[in-house]
Design goal:
Blueprint: E1 6-10, H1 16-24, E2 28-33, H2 57-61, E3 66-70, H3 76-86, E4 91-94, H4 100-103, H5 108-114, E5 119-124, H6 139-145, H7 167-189, E6 193-198, H8 199-205, H9 213-217, E7 227-230, E8 233-236, E9 238-241, E10 244-248, H10 252-264, H11 272-275, H12 281-286, H13 295-307, H14 311-321, E11 325-327, H15 331-335, H16 338-342, E12 347-350, E13 356-359, H17 384-391, H18 396-403
Parallel strand pairs: 1-2, 1-4, 2-3, 4-5, 5-6
Antiparallel strand pairs: 7-8, 9-10, 10-11, 12-13
Length: 408
């Protein structure tokens, strides 16, 4: 889909997913690292038996479908080479601090003079300007200031963030979409476009309907842990299973079917089936109308049933009978998830230490324009000669000056 286009990727660990998405869609992505390599090369987890610059599994995961070069942009030679690459590029994505690229003479206003059709995407914590632009930021602080932590955690304890850091991945995904949106606008206007991606704003979108709760109901949602507050009643969402936990929401549609499961297992007597108008049970409870079986009894019966079955058993029966049951999966559960296996999601990848292992696959399967992994993450400076020498025609001395200390 994007095979005619070239992307210059100047991001570090805060933005590499954005260019990878465009690379998966077919773009020619050139990963441009400083002489010492991207900061993500120094982020774990690490392989023990791989060469030092190639040990980071994090770098490996988020830099497929990219060619890689090194440039020292603090030197005139390095900046000159970047400008030459920019002349025929379509996108530039960077994650420098606000104002840093301008200080190097490589900001949007300067680069649009070189390439008047350029899509320039800048990923920062709080945007390019404003009262928070220069604040220090981490995944934790951005998760908090983005609002999502206000919804996460038990109400009687401190708020928490999602265990696996998500902020820069969310920002990168938004950046990829924004880049393509800006490109569509450029095609109509023939003018270069600047895209200001704020990680804090990206996290706000993860709150879903909580973003507009106050405007609709006059108050914000409050975190409820693993329970759902509906008016005057509290419903548990997470139920213990034989091998872990699963999420069930006991609404009327679910109860109308699950009541038969409870009877089959001998959890409740058969008269329960006709003992309530189960499809409207939750509505009656919410309206404080009389019911034959109390909410506590119903919840207790469902808890006993769930403890008799594995997560997989609950999931598969739910799928067969049209009930949404979500297992609380561990990493091992995800790796063995039958749906992903049958869809051919996992790919075999050659790690830098020589092993072949299954890794996460392409994010979507398209019938007419299938996406593939054309190359795995580049070694540090792997394509210096191919791009700088072959494409740009630079001499060995010019390459050495441009890439700096990484070349002997």
């Amino acid at each position: 889909m994007l095979s005619p286009y070239t992307v210059l990727d100047l991001t570090d660990d805060r933005g590499e997913l954005a260019a990878m998405v465009l690379g998966d869609l077919g773009a020619d992505v050139i990963k441009i690292e400083p002489p010492q390599g991207s900061s993500s090369r120094r982020m774990g987890p690490f392989l023990e038996d791989a060469p030092e610059p190639e040990r980071s599994l994090r770098f490996f995961v988020f830099n497929r479908n990219k060619r890689g070069i090194t440039l020292d942009l603090t030197t005139e030679a390095g900046r000159s080479v970047l400008l030459r690459l920019l002349e025929k590029a379509d996108f530039l994505i960077e994650s420098a601090r606000p104002g840093e690229m301008d200080e190097l003479g490589l900001g949007f206003d300067a680069l649009r003079q070189v390439n008047p059709r350029l899509i320039y995407v800048a990923i920062t914590a709080f945007g390019q300007d404003g009262p928070h632009a220069d604040f220090a930021a981490s995944d934790l602080t951005l998760a908090a200031m983005g609002g999502s932590m206000s919804l996460q955690g038990d109400p009687g304890r401190a708020p928490v963030r999602i265990t696996v850091p998500q902020v820069w991945l969310q920002a990168s995904a938004e950046a990829a979409v924004a880049a393509l949106t800006a490109h569509a606008r450029m095609l109509r206007t023939s003018e270069a476009q600047f895209v200001d991606v704020c990680a804090q704003t990206a996290m706000i979108w993860t709150m879903l309907n909580a973003m507009v709760a106050h405007a609709i109901q006059g108050s914000d949602f409050n975190r409820g842990g693993s329970a759902l507050q509906l008016g005057t009643i509290t419903l548990p969402l997470v139920y213990e299973c034989a091998d872990g936990h699963a999420v069930l929401l006991l609404n009327g549609a679910m109860l109308a079917k699950i009541i038969h499961w409870l009877v089959e297992d001998g959890v409740v007597p058969e008269e329960w089936i006709e003992g309530e108008e189960w499809r409207w049970y939750d509505v009656r409870v919410l309206q404080e109308q009389p019911v034959h079986y109390s909410l506590e009894e119903v919840i207790g019966a469902c808890q006993r049933y769930a403890r008799r079955h594995t997560k997989q058993e609950l999931l598969e029966r739910g799928l067969r009978e049209g009930i949404t049951i979500a297992p609380v999966n561990t990493v091992e559960d995800v790796a063995r998830f039958r749906h992903l296996e049958e869809r051919g999601y996992w790919l075999m990848a050659p790690l830098p230490d020589g092993r072949q292992v299954p890794v996460s696959g392409i994010f979507a399967r398209l019938s007419e324009t299938p996406m593939t992994v054309r190359r795995w993450a580049p070694k540090l400076g792997e394509h210096n000669e191919e791009i700088l020498g072959g494409t740009l025609g630079l001499s060995a001395q010019e390459i050495a000056a441009a890439v700096g200390a990484s070349v002997a």
